[in-house]
Amino acid sequence: RFLQSSESPNWQKVEVNGGHVHVSGSGIWKWNGTPIYIRLAPHQPVEDDDRSHSPRPNLSGLKRLPSSLAAEHARRRRQPGFISPFLGAVVAERSGHGVLSGPHRSLETAITHGAGGHHAGGCEVAADAERVRSRKTVRLPVMPCGRVLCTLDSMLIVFLQMQDLKSQLQELIPEQQDRLKKLKSEHGKTQLGNITVDMVLGGMRGMTGMLWETSLLDPEEGIRFRGLSIPECQKVLPTAVKGGEPLPEGLLWLLLTGKVPTKEQVDALSKELLARSTVPAHVYKTIDALPVDAHPMTQFTTGVMALQVESEFQKAYDNGLPKSKFWEPTYEDCLNLIARLPPVASYVYRRIFKSGKSIEADNSLDYAANFSHMLGFDDPKMLELMRLYVTIHTDHEGGNVSAHTGHLVGSALSDPYLSFAAALNGLAGPLHGLANQEVLLWIKSVIEETGSGVTTDQLKDYVWKTLKSGKVVPGFGHGVLRKTDPRYSCQREFALKHLPKDPLFQLVSKFGVLLNHFGLSEARYYTVLFGVSRSMGIGSQLIWDRALGLPLERPKSVTMEWLENYCKNKAA
């Protein structure tokens, strides 16, 4: 019998001796092409299941199992009809070698025998989710020396794929740490450019001053996520439907690892985010303490702050976690935060605009589609639009207000909840994310004054009217880009494909009015959508900030008098 490791092209031998299967090492493996998982962990007592006489393993102490998942598992397993996503397994630990013990001489026969024998203190192994639902699982006895988790239950594979994501980061981090050290030692004194008075007085525009790994903005061609343009991401990232838009989970994987994920990895990440998405009741109560007419961003940011009590980083730091491991609880916090934002954001939307009638999540949907569903929009085209919207707005390098704020606050070792809440407050400004709201209101004002059949000359006159009144035309122009923003281009292509005859789109095909077309017309809410998306970019970089050990950000400030004296001395 052989198991093939997903981590290595080499085959690992599995010995069958006296009913015991011996496996060296731990990790994600494949049995005849089917993923299974083997992991060593300390021995834990087996607890009884209240719903049956078949005991299941206690997973609350499993190594590297996030406490939030363990708590969620413990909560859900008390609900009627719940099938544990941690069904399954096999047991033992002996100096780095696992032992699969049971009435069958191999995993293959254990699976094909269907509902096998019941062994006290044993664990279940299932070939697929259907076998789990029908309870056609196999019982295998526990070895007293410890435990190895091993299952073919697809629900558990979801969790294991997430461990694969984390293991990829664990492999990448030392390489990137060495790369950073080499860059600093060999080129630390290299000048990147000259700082001018205009830069100091002009919001540091054009000043290169921070490290941001997940994306890079080119003035001529737009954003690149880990080197890939938006059109390239649309081509290579997994989609929910053939020929559809990229799944945001795929871009999250790309931002974290720099690698394009498989569809299986993206599906696993999607389900893992769903498993992390339960929001504590106190968060909703905190939001409910605000006036219903409070701005959606105020309510959304309040919800994020209320989530902060769940911070794994804060708890680990208080317990003396070494700096070299800061990235691990940061990773847990960021994924938990990303997972919980759609329920919080949709709650805010339904509270303000839909009389507080919330919609439960649909566990069969992916991240963006589920968000759209909880908002109350189930049109398949709207689901595709939400996937596109969340994907393309995840990141826009580090110099914009929200990204820089998240990085700055995180550099003080504030946990990801505090850092992201600060970023959201920056995003809420009219010169940043709130432009999403302002631009649609401006477009509607054009229609109110000129009618839907506005000509180019009428539109030109209205633009000049706006400018001459001392106002700006919101949502147009960019501090860095000098050509058409590719985020706009791909949304325009979506509109041409799905809603070419929409009157608002025909009028402002140069603007972009997709959300309004599908019924999400509450412009005050648009920045919240932006915030949900931006969590993936800011969160990914926060993880890398801690992994690379980036220091506290502390630039030098000067007064106008200092600048005047410096310039005089320079001229002399």
From TrEMBL:
UniProt GO BP: citrate metabolic process; tricarboxylic acid cycle
GO-annotated molecular function: acyltransferase activity, acyl groups converted into alkyl on transfer
Keyword terms of this UniProt record: Transferase
Chain positions covered by the region annotation Disordered: 44-64
Family, as annotated: Belongs to the citrate synthase family.
Protein name: Citrate synthase
Lineage, highest ranks first: Eukaryota, Viridiplantae, Streptophyta, Embryophyta, Tracheophyta
